[in-house]
Design brief:
With 82 residues, the protein is α+β, with helices and mostly antiparallel strands. Helices cover 44% and strands 16% of the residues. Strands 1-3-2 form a three-stranded mixed β-sheet. The protein starts with a helix and ends with a helix.
Amino acid sequence: MIDEHEYRLRECVHRPRGAEGDYYGGQSYLEHLQRLRSEAAVRVAANVAPFFWADAANVRVWLCEECAGQLGLRREANHARG
């Protein structure tokens, strides 16, 4: 059985390596992912544990600074939007 905490949190592959990063809303993550060209979007998405897009409003995504930068996400915007 999947713990609800695990279900709602996803992270990029760089977190276990000690990379600096932050949490972003799943919806914001998807919106920024969709702005990328196909190849870049697939490359970035491959770094994050998958989730159903329909669940995005209930998912928090931890991204390292590099992955967030590739998506154009900034910490200031993250904290302002929640």
